[in-house]
Amino acid sequence: MEHDELDFAAALRRAGLTVAPERYHAMLEAYRGMQTLLRVLDEPLAYADEPAVSPRLDSEIRSGLPK
Amino acid sequence: MSAAPLPTTPLPTLAEAGRRIAAGELSPVALTEAALGRAMALNERLSAFIEITAERARAAARRAEREIAGGRRRGPLHGIPYGLKDIYDAAGLRTTAHSKLLLDNVAAEDAATTARLEAAGMVLIGKLATHEFATGGPAWDLPFPPARNPWNPEHFTGGSSSGSGAAVAAGILPLTMGSDTGGSIRLPAAYCGVVGLKPTYGRVSRRGVVPLAYSLDTCGPLTWTVEDSALALQALAGHDPRDPGSADVPVPDYRSALRAGVAGLRIGYARGFNGDAGVEAEQAAALDAAAQVLAGLGAEIVEVALPPNDHFQAVARTISHGESFSIHQDDLRRRPQDYARVTRERLMLGAFVTAAQYNRAQRLRRVLTARVDALFDSCDVLLTAAITGPAPVLEETDTGPWRKQQPITSVFNVTSHPALAQPCGFAANGLPLSVQFVGRAFDESTVLRVGHAYEQAAGWTRRRPEIAILPALKP
What we know:
The complex is a heterodimer of chains A (67) and B (475).
Chain A: H1 3-15, H2 24-37, H3 59-62
Chain B: H1 14-22, H2 28-46, E1 49-52, H3 54-69, E2 81-85, H4 112-119, E3 123-128, H5 162-169, E4 175-180, H6 186-192, E5 195-198, E6 218-223, H7 226-236, H8 254-257, E7 266-269, H9 271-276, H10 281-296, E8 300-303, H11 309-334, H12 341-348, H13 355-375, E9 381-385, H14 411-415, E10 419-426, E11 432-439, H15 444-458
Parallel strand pairs in B: 2-3, 2-4, 7-8, 7-9
Antiparallel strand pairs in B: 1-3, 4-6, 5-6, 5-10, 9-11, 10-11
Helix pairs in contact in B: 2-3, 5-6, 7-15, 11-12, 11-13
């Protein structure tokens, strides 16, 4: 079993999900395709590059909180 | 008020219906009967509706007619039929999200957007087909069949607002509501040859709409014309303190802005994106032609470069899969068999997103948004592709867990900018092609202004699908 297949199986187990045997290969290939695309996320980012959804605790946001 | 004859042609646009109702030339009751008649006659072929709410619609139409006759016309949308993608709540009706999981889910109150359209006096005709939970793809292992493209029912409508696109293209309704997390308003608009507006994230409330990915979900209209999109947005836009993502930003007069034309505007054509995103030759040629039309109207066309498409796709997939898995993880564990195969498998991909990947995607999202924002220092609107080519054959649509071609519309879900998809021609096989106009955050006015000017000059809206001669569908 390849390393990435072990990672795939571990992620499924941790998430509590099962894949039917006849769909196992298709899901494994999907996992590999996804991880290939997501490699660009490993490119360097500056410390100052905060997440797009960092909380903004201004009045606009507070007004949306449940009373 | 005289009753119009039952039209065998498509329903009038919002603008025309509103004008004729105001003039006493058109009855809301007759208009509603026309919409119901077309919905019932065409749904067997198109599967656009999950539920047609005929009695509710007739009661609403009679009420509208009484109010208008009594001098209490509420505005330009009063008495005009509309439809809701079946992820929008309407009090007393089921919201199924096209899924077995929600077959018994009856809404207690209207979604914020539904309430706004009802307050405008519109008449709900029914709930429309969607991809299950606004994700996945066309599927045959669901309680309802997938919608069909009115231009050729053997072809895909696009999704996930599939019924919304089909109902407008077929002339059943002048306005339907869709939702857009990665392109789910603009893709069916593009494939069905109609106008689809994804407003700026935060412009239109999402309260009462089944979520897919909280930081990407956007609600908006599908219509036949850009003017109708402006009319719809006028009713829909506004701050909702009960939607945590809603923005408190003033709402301008969208319709009056349409008349300003495009002379003097700078339009940035992301021409290089065509190659980067795999846009087919005839779609690319149609975009070139659209740019030439706008230049002929006095706009200045400049070429601009978007960041690499694979960066947008990585960000969009990571965030969308991560957030949607967080919503569905319990049902994926407890009752996975109740999802369609394609929905289940695509939602499960979210289990593979790590916390670090999600956070880095949100960080890169901010970088990409800033780079697109910078383009608006020198441009008023961007022109890009919305689709790579015309609608594929429905039975050949990619329904694997990992799509080989990710929707290129998701670029502007990542950045949150308003984006409008509208027709820009037809492919050799007769199916629609589409152009996308994108504006500064909360500047839907300029996007609609450019779209309207282009639409008036290009004239693509004069061509409708020939519903009457559609071939019989396969059983």
